[in-house]
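[audit] Reproducing an earlier prediction to check determinism. Same input, same settings, fresh worker. If the tokens differ from the archived copy the diff job will pick it up downstream; this log only records the rerun itself.
[audit] input (89 residues):
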Amino acid sequence: MASKEEFEEYAEKAKTLPPATKDADKLVLYGLYKQSTVGNVTTGRPGIFSPKERAKWDAWKAVEGKTEEEAMNEYITKVKQWQEAAKLH
């Protein structure tokens, strides 16, 4: 069970992931972060002319329904995995 402090610590660590981190991976983290801090999606899907915002919205929508705790735990796990993977390269 993750604490808010641990989650905030890993949110800071996520900012230092290597530049080679894939955009798709960053979007997963974004979705989990938003689900952890805001809850389910609260806005309409951005239009086709806003591809970046649309991708972020889709990532958040993909984790809709997870509890705050589930999203925090998954977020921390992902950051740990990607930090370990970066150390191996």
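[audit] rerun output stored. Observation attached for the diff report: The chain has a mean pLDDT of 93.
[audit] end
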